[in-house]
């Protein structure tokens, strides 16, 4: 980790430490795993508040991976500070509870937009109606990468919520009727903060369970799904980087 003075309150990274392309897992352990498994020359630039952050390269593209913690308040703070530190494309990589049984264990969901059922976006928008959406270029790149890799994927709406244990099967099926594929806890805030600053954002999520089923996907199956998700996200970043070259 660099010894230069940090410039942000929570993501205590020195100027230049964060790459323009960033993956955003919620779990700091997953951030560490991604950095050590997929990035070349990864070095830690922050561990303040256990918001672990690393920068390395993937196929020659500079990539950071930064933990956001759980929920929109933390994710919004991290996204804001990463943008101040130079991030220009941010992709959430996390897990999701399926709203419909047609999603299979460890399937990949690529979010087009997020229903903002959270308090952070309401405060940022002062209650105004708004539809937090992923950047088209990020969605397109992720879909292309998933197709090329032969990864089963679903593209559509997710819902971002604050109360993890509040969701019920009835709630899930109701929103599935409006096209929601599943529920997660960070995408709407990431999409909104990115839009406010004119940068790109996306969200890829691995199905960890069906909301109607209390049992999580077996760890080995989920790990395989997370691996597919991360590889798709990284290949999407390579495509985006090549388009900008």
Characteristics:
globular; 245 residues; five-stranded mixed β-barrel
SSE diagram, text form:
Elements: E1 21-24, H1 28-38, E2 40-46, E3 53-58, E4 61-66, H2 72-84, E5 89-98, E6 108-117, H3 119-125, H4 136-149, E7 153-161, H5 169-176, E8 180-184, H6 187-196, E9 200-210, H7 219-244
Parallel strand pairs: 1-4, 1-5, 5-9, 6-7, 7-8
Antiparallel strand pairs: 2-3, 3-4, 5-8, 6-9
Structural description of this entry:
With 245 residues, the protein is of the alpha/beta class. 36% of the residues lie in helices and 28% in strands. β7 (153-161), α5 and β8 form a beta-alpha-beta unit. The model has no long low-confidence stretch (mean pLDDT 95).
The whole-angstrom Rg is 17 Å
Instruction: Summarize model confidence as the mean pLDDT.
Output: 95
Helix content: 25-40%
Distance between the termini: 28 Å
What is the N-to-C succession of helices and strands? EHEEEHEEHHEHEHEH
β-strand percent reads 25-35%
Oligomer: single chain
């Amino acid at each position: 980790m660099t010894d230069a003075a940090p410039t942000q309150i929570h993501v205590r990274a020195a100027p230049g430490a964060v790459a323009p392309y960033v993956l955003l897992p919620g779990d700091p352990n997953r951030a560490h795993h991604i950095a050590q498994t997929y990035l070349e020359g990864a070095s830690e630039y922050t561990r303040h508040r256990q918001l672990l952050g690393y920068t390395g390269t993937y196929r020659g593209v500079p990539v950071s991976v930064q933990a956001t913690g759980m929920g929109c308040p933390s994710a919004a703070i991290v996204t804001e500070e990463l943008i101040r530190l130079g991030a220009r494309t941010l992709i959430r990589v996390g897990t999701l509870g399926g709203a419909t049984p047609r999603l299979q264990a460890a399937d990949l969901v690529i979010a087009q937009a997020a229903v903002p059922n959270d308090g952070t976006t309401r405060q940022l928008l002062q209650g105004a109606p708004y539809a937090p959406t992923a950047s088209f270029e990020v969605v397109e790149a992720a879909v292309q990468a998933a197709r090329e890799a032969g990864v089963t994927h679903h593209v559509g709406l997710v819902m971002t919520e604050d109360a993890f244990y509040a969701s019920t099967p009835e709630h899930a099926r109701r929103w599935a009727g409006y096209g929601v594929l599943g529920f997660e806890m960070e995408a709407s805030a990431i999409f909104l903060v990115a839009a406010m600053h004119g940068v790109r954002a996306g969200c890829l999520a691995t199905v960890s369970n069906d909301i109607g089923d209390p049992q999580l996907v077996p760890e080995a199956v989920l790990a395989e799904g997370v691996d597919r998700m991360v590889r798709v996200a990284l290949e999407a970043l390579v495509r985006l980087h090549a388009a900008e070259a």
